[in-house]
Amino acid sequence: MVCKTCDASLETAVNFCPNCGVPISVPKGESTKEHLNLVISFYIVMLGFLIINYFLYKDESSLLQDIATESVFALIIIGFTFFDFKNIIKLYRFPKINFLHFLGYLLVPFASAFLVYYAVEFINDQLSDETYNYYLGYIDYPNPMFWAVLFVAIFPPVFEELGFRGFLYNQLLKITSTKVTIILTAFIFALVHFSVISLLWIFPFGLLLGYLRHKYNTLWIGMIIHFIHNFIVLYLDYYYFDSTLLEF
Q1: Is pLDDT at 93 greater than 70 in this prediction?
Q2: Which structural domain, as residue segments, surrounds residue 16?
Q3: What share of the chain has pLDDT > 90, as a percent?
Q4: 229: closest CA among 197, 194, 202?
Q5: DSSP string covering 130-189, please?
Q6: Is residue 113 within 8 Å of 229, Cβ to Cβ?
Q7: Is residue 163 within 8 Å of residue 42, measured between CB atoms?
Q8: How many whole angstroms separate alpha carbon 24 and alpha carbon 13?
Q9: Phi, psi of 16 (to 5 degrees)
Q10: How many Å apart are CA 243 and CA 233, to the nearest integer?
Q11: Do 182 and 77 share a structural domain?
Q12: Are 23 and 125 contained in the same domain?
């Protein structure tokens, strides 16, 4: 729930806004069941889309298939946001934030990207001889780096943050506490990535993004951090891919 006067995030069982003090009233027709149904619908649609996409493009994919997949994903997210458009559009306001705090937050994705990249590489080396390279998946496309940056570093931060820290967060906040909302959005965010290894870092990463969404009531900080993290991981894949080629 969000205060209409100051846009502060609220717990579900409050009569007055703790930020500005105005009385809080629940609009007519706004029920817990309605928001819960939207949460369940969002998860089922996302899960169904990802499963279908996995089996359709399990063996190989083309540029047109990738464009179609990303476009459908974006349309799904945008479609759900129209159920809560007025509240979501407010999340695109630039927040008032201490400059040093902002710089500190920007250091997080640099640390997380390197830590995650080398940790995952180590785990993969221990468990199997296969490794996954994001850049390699686009090497056969014209202008491979352009498509890799678009589909790995730009699309996910924009639409995943809109879907999980925007729509899903808003719906959960209307039926449970802020703390549970942050945890659930991070958990569902991790689940839809279909990777046990990724779950180890995506869940805490989602917790951080959810906390920043709550603290500053904006999607911008989360999108920037998400972008930096994904871009660095992609660049490391690009760097090591080219290094491997130079050895031959």
Answers
A1: yes
A2: 1-30
A3: 58
A4: 202
A5: ----TGGGGTTSSSHHHHHIIIIIIHIIIIIIIIIIIIIHHHHHTTS-HHHHHHHHHHHH
A6: yes
A7: yes
A8: 10
A9: -135, 145
A10: 15
A11: yes
A12: no
Mean pLDDT over the full length of the chain: 85
Q: Classify the C-alpha dihedral 87-150-221-36 as positive or negative.
A: positive
Encoded tokens for 79? 């479609």
187 shares a domain with 125: yes
> Are residues 76 and 183 both part of a single domain?
yes
Contact (Cβ atoms closer than 8 angstroms) between residue 209 and residue 83: no
Residue 145 shares a structural domain with residue 127 = yes
Distance, in Å, from the CA atom of 196 to the CA atom of 84, rounded to the nearest integer, reads 32
d(CA 64, CA 48): 21
* Phi-psi sector, 186: left (phi>0), alpha (psi -120 to 50), beta: alpha
185 touches 168 (CB < 8 A): yes
Residue 123's pLDDT is what?
78
CA distances for 8 relative to 42, 167, 220, 234, angstroms = 24, 16, 16, 35
Same domain (yes/no): 214, 121: yes
Neighbour tally for 28: CB within 10 Å: 6
In single-letter form, the type of residue at position 168 comes to L
Q: Rounded CA gap, 169 and 77, in Å?
A: 13
Instruction: Give the integer Cα–Cα distance in Å for 74 and 203.
Output: 22
Cβ count within 10 A of residue 168: 25
Residues 57 and 16 in one domain: no
Q: Which amino acid is at 95?
A: P
pLDDT tens track for 138-171 = 988 999 999 999 999 999 999 999 999 999 999 9
Give me the residue label for tokens 């349309």: 75
Locate tokens 């500005």: which residue?
20
